[in-house]
Amino acid sequence: MFVAPLLLLLFGPFAPSSGAQLPNEGQAKDPPIATNGQPFPWDRMRLPKTVSPIHYDLIIHPNLTTFDFTGVARIELDVHEDTSVIILHAKQMQISNVLLLAPEGVRPLQVLENPRFHQLALLSDSVLTKGRKYEVQLGFAANLSDSYHGFYKSSYRTSTGEVRFMASTQFEATFARGAFPCFDEPAFKANFTIRITREPRHIAISNIGVARRLLEDNFDTTVKMSTYLVAYIVSDFLSVSKTTQHGVKISIYAVPEKIDQTAFALDAAVKLLDFYDDYFDIPYPLPKQDLAAIPDFQSGAMENWGLTTYRETGLLFDADRSSASDKLGITKVIAHELAHQWFGNLVTMEWWNDLWLNEGFAKFMEYISLDITYPELHVDDFFLGKCFEAMEVDSLSSSHPVSTPVENPMQIQEMFDDVSYDKGACILNMLRDFLTPEAFEIGIIQYLKRYSYQNTVNSHLWESLTNVSDLDVRAIMDTWTLQEGFPLVTVEVRGREVRLSQERYLKTDDPSLTEGFLWQIPLTYMTSASSTIHRFLLKTKTDVLYLPEEVDWVKFNVDMSGYYMVHYADNGWNSIIRLLQHNHTALTSNDRASLIHTVFQLVSIGKVRLDTALELSLYLSRETEIMAVTQGFGELVPLYKLMEKRDMPALENQMKGYIVDLFRGLIDRQEWSDSGSVSERVLRSYLLLFACVRNYTPCVTKATQLFNQWKASDGKISLPVDITMAVFVIGARTPEGWNFLFEKYRNSMQMSVKSRMKTAMTVTPLQDKLKMMEQSLRGDVMKTQDLPDVVVSVSRNPHGFKLAWDFLRANWHTLIKKFDLGSSTISYMVTGVTNQYSTREMLNEVRSFFGSLTEETGSEMRCIQQTYETIEDNIRWMDTNLPLLRAWLDKHRHKGPHEDL
What's the pTM value of the predicted model, to 2 decimals? Predict the structure, then answer.
């Protein structure tokens, strides 16, 4: 599954992901009672291993008029222990005509239901014998889901205003059980033969190709796979196709009026599937790979084997209207889902505690694959940001290990977060760098070949990588996957002697929480005397290494290939600051970005004074590289956003003025065009948008002029794509401009254009227009799938943050029903709306609301604890650093007035 990346620091990321059901205990407190009052014969959340499925024969008939479906599941079983009870999953469906098909004949089975764990018990009056095979047959019926999981209904509006309906699936992590009775755990792999009955005006697609197509589509039998990867769609989509060099048919499916936006994705999918086929040295095992753009979709995309599903914005690209950011985003999401066809589908984690084996690898492979297949995208410029995002969550005491015990569906859904995806990718990148890319590649190919069509745990991966190196990979990596957080390495240079020590980096005022942590850290470093990268494995709390000669400076964690921070004690930071001020290109862009990130993070825990971090930031006036520039914004912008929430306009404007002055030269050099490399174009969009939002006069004047021309042409003239966000943001400041944008949004078929319009409309100072949150919740013009982005973007708006918080509280029960407890969508809204609060009053208000929830309405969600910690950290930061900030800004008062800021 793909959770879409950071769009803009100013407005927050797209991060919706798949959903979850109500929380449950891992084991019932009292013996469970079935719905008919009888004792239920199984009392655990996880299924017993007495039987396992071999093959499912499914007949499914969705009705897109009544929005329900019926079906029959025939499941072939292998019996591992004598038993008279079969336990499997079914959720919110009517079960009927349950039969045991045994060699001795057909007989009915008694059915008991335990809705708490979504379980059925099928009771036989005779024993199923170990070593024999049986079949069970179950009739089932249910409504198409109103959420974004299970077998759910979706709709789209044509250009003439007609609403058309379709049905699609989203089964990860625990939602196949809402579509058909099944053993809904990843280790219960089986083959699936699916038949779908439909109307003549629709088509049906599934994981594997169609054997014959009448009004009932009979699909060939799938390869052996987990239930969460099963997929089928009934729609009126059109498709375009190409064949890879290895003979796999690739097809892109989309609604008819958007099929002309599929050419880029089709070419990318062909190129990337060929790349993975060669890179993994394992042929893609299916005859086809379909990619479908679904009008209603909660996550970024989903890796169903042979039928990957996407948000429309994740697949559709218009060469004339899509931006460089759109191209980067689409290639990354396709690379992610196709990597899953090996990591996740071919080799699957045994249980959701090791979800990172799927998601960390897929995130990591996005960058490996695109670096080779699309070098012009410069994906390396964006990888570092994923590690910083992971560290933001991982620096809280409410973080969790990469590999974490989970039982109930809510806990499982909470695993789809920055730790599993981004931290997972970053520690893999660290290991690859330390082992060498060549050895790492050989090791993961061995892992995939050895465990094809099987389920794995962490140790299987470490064993394969240890085989290709002289390191004990498991000993190293267990310290990164089995304990939460990450290390801060303190470096003291005394002549040729370098003293090293490690501790957990943690934003807390309770030092006891950092005790007891120890990592094996693959350190890398370079010095002023040599550009050679040296390596050293720090296994202990403290150690010493010796340089061949005394040096002016030493830089650890070269290119930030390691998932750790470095503190330069004594005079170390002053040496770094001098280097950046006099010769910043002596270090790579990634090194500079990591230094900016680290020095401000060390302010948060009192290791570095704020004025030291601000002195380092002064060099940014000469910075031009995207990673370092955006990280500069990433550390400085939140400072005035905290002041916004405290109503401190004078200091807030002073801080804004400093940032504008810092980047004024770079902003002034930007052309209002689409020229340059992808990184240059993405940076241009970012800078001009920032300048317009901050009322930098030259930008506001130019954007106003362009918006007026565009509006006068009724939106027909073509604006340079990469600057449209800045233009739309300025246009949305007036009622007439906002209304014009909304009408264009309503009628546009270009998904990337709609996305930019949507964000611009949330940035308006017109408070009455920010009620678009209510409009998005209804979903008639602005789809409900976009609501999380709208709410978080409004919360970033100084005129809207209170509206967003009030909206979240007022609609909480609707939101958790639509998007599911534990989902990263709910987490994204909770943290996105609250993470800039910095007063005791708001902390109390937040605690009061979340404290009033029950377990069934989300009180146990990790994101709530993260929210409390973040606000408390903000309060500490402001109380400690405001006097320093005021004094430093007075000392460096920016040249020229910025009364308009």
Answer: 0.93
